[in-house]
Records
---
Amino acid sequence: MALGQNHTTVMRFILLGLTDQADLKQLLFAIFLLIYSMTLVGNLGMIDLIRTSSPLHTPMYFLLSVLSFLDICNSSVFTPMLLTSFLTTDQSISLVGCVVQMALMILHGTGECLLLAIMAYDRFVAICYPLLYYTIMSKHFCVQLVVVTYAVGVFISAVQTGNAFSLPFCGPNIIDHYFCDIPPVLQLACSDTTTANIILLFFSTLVTVPTVSVILVSYAYILVTICRLRSLDAQRKAFSTCASHLTALSLFYGSVFLVYVQPNPESASAYNKILTVFYTIVIPMLNPLVYSLRNKDVKAAVQVRVLNLSQKGIFQKAI
């Protein structure tokens, strides 16, 4: 399809992936297959545990089940294609496939930012206003928050993806990454990208600044409230309810900021790839472990669930 007189629109992109060394590809395939399997098992197990365990039918764990769902979706946007790239010589992705991958990446990334902020607000209400917790964080309100999260995610995704692919692409078509991220795609546009980069910065700021502000303000109030508690045991208990969420926040935002908040991100593509792997593929695997290993309620629910399943298995064998 012609674009002007001397340019042809790019219809496929070449993803360079993580490595071009054939001897590393089999090892990386095994590692990422294990990570993806653990991600699916861990997050599906967390969703099932929250659904079947009545002590976990609280706003906090409802939001955690949504986070697990987002982690499954987010990991599934990147990992299957990355696994395929280790086994085949064809590293290409169609223009449509690139658009879809970017749109889903932005949707789930935006959703995770918003959800982590909502979870911080949930902890703020639970610790600072415990008597009003179930009134404020009602089931209806939690569902509304999740719907708004997805609505905002769809809007930001549509704007950002449209912003990137409204530009003409007439070659080269090589993306030095393992997926269609916005910055490397914009670098391939054969027109001025100043406006596109300003729009990217504006909407990225629009998502991150309010969410980080909510998180910081929420935890500032939480810290003040915990310090005012007279009992050390009460302080320890209050802090333990926030520890898992703080760990998840540190992992996610730490790696995201290290990737995107750089004076010249183009000069450190290999470094960025490793960090991007961490927050797109590794963190979705770690979140269920963080929330289960540091949470007494989840540990107790796991024990009850395992006990019930073993009893059912014994009963079926007896029949």
---
Amino acid sequence: MGKFSNDIRELLEGVGGKENIVTVSHCATRLRFVLADPKKADVGKIEKIKSVRGTFTQAGQFQVIIGNEVSVFYNELIKETGLKESSKEEAKKAGRQNMNFLQRLISHLAEIFAPIIPAIVVGGLILGFRNVIGDIAFFEDGSKTLTEVSQFWAGVHHFLWLIGEAIFFFLPVGITWSIAKKMGTTQILGIVLGITLVSPQLLNAYAVAGGAEPPVWDFGFTQIKMIGYQAQVIPAMLAGFILSYLEIKIRKITPEYISMIVVPFFALVPTVLIAHVVVGPIGWRIGSVISNVVYSGLTSAVGWLFAAVFGFFYAPLVITGLHHMTNAIDLQLMSEFGGTNLWPMIALSNIAQGSAVLAIIFINRNKPEKEEEKQVSIPATISCYLGVTEPAMFGINLKYVYPFFAAMIGSALAGVFSVATGVMANSIGVGGLPGILSIQPQFMLRFAVAMLIAIVVPFTLTVVFSKNNLFVKNTKSIAS
């Protein structure tokens, strides 16, 4: 008999029996069930199980928070039930059966950006470091930067641009590769397609935007402008999906013995042509419109209102999965304006959720009956401050409601301050407290103040709401 045998039996009953489970996998803290009929899950019954810290549904998956021992629980579950082990990717695919069209669209978008986020985070940190040593005058009475007084640091500054350029200028290569990988098509073709969008023989997209006249491919009867799409997101996404669509369709009608020759040729060549004639220019225009609308909204006279709405509703967006859409907007802002004023608000929302959980820990500090809850709340706080909010939101804040609401208010106020003071980030970066490393140096002090707001306001409001039973879901389970 395993450590969690009784809990496993109760959990199986709670999810509607073994026969209701399509797949099950796990991540760092959660079991991820795809259920044949999600309505059969008895959430109230499941959340009463001793080892369960909370539940939520996301991306078509019914997720049960177990905590740090989730791998042990999962292994016992598989052993005792005979269920087939599934990877997170398999669970995601199966989970789409429970999603509507918009949810499936957002899920696909998230899967495209997830593999390239680590590179973008590194790139943002590198750009931030280069700005610190190359743009801020710390020396000789504030008249010179570190690169101006040290040849070594000047060399470091120059060298690091090699990495920054590879990540951001050639971002379309990563996007088209990621789409090919996600669609199950030939990944090297995705890489080649991306390179054709940023090839050095093409006039740089930024030069074209500055008014430079691009060279052309002259076919006699027509000419095509040789424009590059460096750092552009939407043109790369559109081209990537066209390539995958063509490859899948052509492969279906091509005999296996000639597919190695026919499929790559008739998928890649038309796609590159379409990318430079149609979807490239259209995608560039769409991206410019989106980024200009967002940037104008955040820098206008009513930018504070835009910031308040985004800061307040970002956490609920995370619950729905719609927050993944902001990655594309952030990247487009970076390509158009050399930075993003949207990302700082996301980092502040992370901090606010963690601060609300910190307040719960403070409220329940002398309550022995809450000791088990600390197994979720303490790691969840740390996780939030490092940029991952799901354990905090689903494990604590949504369980009680009022800390979640307090965090939303704190996030909104911090976001308003960030936008009102013009804070810009170099790029998407590490969320939470380390997010300050992605902020452009001249705005770091202002962002530090915004971070303080995101810590103090949610903490204070959570305590106040608790003592006054405001926005409380279950007064028996919290401080009086």
